[in-house]
Amino acid sequence: MTVKFSCIIDEKPKYARQALLWAASLLTYGQVPADALVVHTVDGCAPEYQRVFDSWGIRIEKVRCFDRRHAWSNKLGQLESEALRRADHVVLCDCDLAFCGSILPWVSGNAVRAVIAARAWFPFRRWKRILAAAGLGRVTSAVPSVFGPPTLAGFCNGGLYVLPQSLFQSLRSVWPKWDRWVLDRRHLFQPWGFFADQISFAMSCQELALRVEHLPVELNYHTRWRSPRLLRAVLGKSDIFPLVLHYHRETDAQGYLLPTKIASVNARIRQINRLLRRFDRGDFNPRQQISAQPGQPVLNVR
User: Fold this and answer.
1) Where are the beta strands (DSSP E) in the chain?
2) Alpha carbon 197 to its chain's center
3) CA separation, residue 41 to residues 6, 10, 38 (Å)
4) Of 9, 180, 219, 291, which is least packed with CB atoms within 10 Å of its CB?
5) For the residues 94-123, what does the mean pLDDT come to?
C-alpha cells in the first residue's frame, strides 16, 4: 500500500518552518520515508527552506491559490496535485502538526478518517437549515462533538484527513464546489465563517454519503487544551499521550511549542522541541528514525 502525507504552505517563512517540523517529525518518529511526503506551495517557498526540503528528498509541488478570500481553503489546492493521485491513501495535513509516533495503523480502510470537531459551533437545527438551503436534504448522521453537542459526522477537525484514493477523487469536484458556496454565503455561517473548509467538507460528505470513521483525539491533539481539569471533564482521562500535536499559535517567538499544564502532553512537547533544536544546531539527520517515547499506552486501532 502506498501512502502520501501532504501539507500546503504559502511564501511566509513561518509556514515553511512549520512544514519543516512537520516533515522532520514524520521522518523521525512517524516511520515515513521522504518520498512519501509532499509539501505543496502557493506563491512559492522561502529559498532557505526550499534547499532543506530538496536536501531531504522531499517533493515540492506548486499549486494554485484556491480562493483569496479564505487562506485556509488553500488546502483544497492539494486535490489537484499530480503527486497525490497514485497513492492508495492520502493524508492531508495542516502544516502546524508535529508527529510523536506513527499513525500508519490508522491509514487504511475505505472510509474518511478524521477527528471529530472539538465543538459543534452550530446548533444542530442550524445545520438542518444550512443543508436545506444547499439542497442537500435531511441530515444522514449526527454524532457528539468532542465537547458533547451533536454535529454532522463529516464536521471534523480539518488538521488531518485520512482519505482512500477513491474518496480523494470523489472530493476533487464536490469539495471545491461547496467551499465556494460557503464563501459566497458567509452570512449563513456567522460568526464561524472562517471554518469554511471544514463546513464545506461536511457538506461534501453529506452529498456523497461518505462514511466517516472518527479517529481518537490523540491523532490530532490541540495543545491549547492545556488544563488537566478539562482533560478529565471532557475526555474522562487523567493523562493523554498524543501521537499528533496540533499546536496552532501555541509557540514562542522561535517556533518552539509552549508547554501545557498536563505532564504527559509536555513529555510529547519536549520530544518535538528537542527535534527542532537538533535542526537549529545543524545536527538533524533526516534518515535517522527514533522510536517514540517507551512505556506509554498503545491506542486501539478501529
Assistant:
1) 3-9, 37-41, 59-62, 89-93, 97-99, 112-114, 142-144, 150-152, 160-164, 212-214, 221-222, 244-246
2) 12
3) 11, 5, 10
4) 291
5) 95
Contact 193, 182 (CB under 8 A): yes
Count the Cβ atoms, other than its own, within 10 Å of residue 3. Answer: 17
Q: What is the pLDDT of residues 222-276, one digit of tens each?
A: 999 988 988 888 888 889 999 999 999 999 999 999 999 999 999 999 999 999 9
Residue 301: pLDDT band (50, 70, 90) is: low
With 0-12 / 13-18 / 19 or more C-beta atoms within 10 angstroms meaning exposed / middle / buried, residue 299 is middle
The reply to whether the predicted model has a pTM over 0.90 is yes
- Taking Cα atoms as reference points, which of 189, 209, 112 lies closest to residue 158? 112
Cα separation of 54 and 20, whole Å?
A: 11
Strand ranges inside 128-243, DSSP E: 142-144, 150-152, 160-164, 212-214, 221-222
Residue positions counted in the chain: 302
For the chain, give every domain's residue range: 118-155+173-215, 219-281
Residue 203: all three cell numbers together? 457538506
Q: How confident is the model at residue 46 (pLDDT cuts 50, 70, 90)?
A: confident
| pLDDT average, residue stretch 21-25 | 97
Measure CA 128 to chain center: 26
